[in-house]
Amino acid sequence: MQTTRFVLEQQEIPTHWYNVVADMPNPPSPPLGPDGNVVSPEQMLAIFPGPLLEQEMSAERWIPIPEEVREIYRLWRPSPLIRAVRLEQALGTPAKLYYKNEGVSPAGSHKPNTAVPQAFYNHMVGIRRLTTETGAGQWGSSMAFAGQMYGIDVRVFMVKVSYEQKPFRRSMMQAWGAEVLSSPTTLTKAGRDILAAHPDSDGSLGVAISEAVEEAAGRPDTNYCLGSVLNHVLLHQTIIGLEAKKQFALAGDWPDVIFGPCGGGSSFGGIALPFLADKAAGKTPNLRLVAVEPTSCPTLTKGAYAYDYGDASGYTPIMKMYTLGHDFMPPGIHAGGLRYHGDSPLISQLVHEGLMEAIAVPQVATFEAGVLFAKAEGIIPAPESCHAIRAAIDEALRCKATGEPKTILFNLTGHGHFDMASYDRYFSGKLEDFDYPAEAIKESLAHLPKV
Ligand SMILES: *Cc1c(COP(=O)(O)O)cnc(C)c1O
Which structural domain range is residue 412 located in? Predict the structure, then answer.
């Protein structure tokens, strides 16, 4: 019987994260404050702990993973690398398809890879409370779990419409001891302002971020956590690609192309950046690293590379990234984790400089790919992950046409057990494709901050 599952021992959990800044051809552009000046560490220390800020600005290639973090990682890591031979057979492709399964974490996605170190460093500097926001609930549940590991209280501002429509993600956060509030609340000025203007507001991620940041900035015992986009988040996620490299060595194989879904870019960076190190060093010049996004929120493929706010209300520093404009309103597609107007500045720069690529795929085809994958491999993927699966299957079918036996890797960022309502809409034919009109993108890009 052929080996299809490449597993590492717990002792082989990497001891260091990889910082791509050390190997980038050009240094990253720093975030700027409202006055156009570089944001000072003092301003950021109001809401982030020192060790995370150091990581945010570091250019060191290797950053040690604290033993206290590896001890939590071992609850589910190393995650398996699987060769999807049954999917290869179903497609009749000469290509080899591998996936890294990040759905095996307690919260069911890659997000705990960064939630755990974020909780740890806050604990280390004596923080007792953390605030954060959540849309669909993936990040909030990861942060609730991570806070519980170090005895930190977590308050989650959950966008009201999800709070009402996704009661089980809410219960999950409660099971890990977090307090979950329906945002907008009357506890913050940001929340009260919105409620005064729109008493029936459904909430939005932008408002929930503003509420969480406002509370953290106003309380010395409380900090704020973000689940994607920032450099330190991508750094923590490199554990995915570092493990995958060891596993490919075990398999005696190496990827020619890597696909990952891309919302804020953390899981894509996590799987791709450790491989980029070899590409940047000229060892694997032909390796392709491809971010996959929805055609309804085409940040990297149709956005502008410019300075913009990280949130909808213009509360955060401005960052140089691909953006659709901070007031861009993505349609209510089912891959909630991919509905973000911007993207990680690191990923944006690497795409801009041609070291990484991006493609966009339409929604219905992603569910089609997810169901094909579930029928062959058994696992029901998160709608976000279905984007990478679509791209990997399309590549495998191109290989079938040309006869090329390429090795394809994709990131299975999460399972879809809390997303069955979305699958239900797909099965009943109610899902639609939506290409964001170029005119509407032009309109929201007209509101970029002037630098
Ligand atoms: C949040 C999420 C994503 C997208 O976020 P990134 O920061 O781009 O990784 C992808 N897949 C799943 C399962 C998610 O929960």
Answer: 67-108+232-445
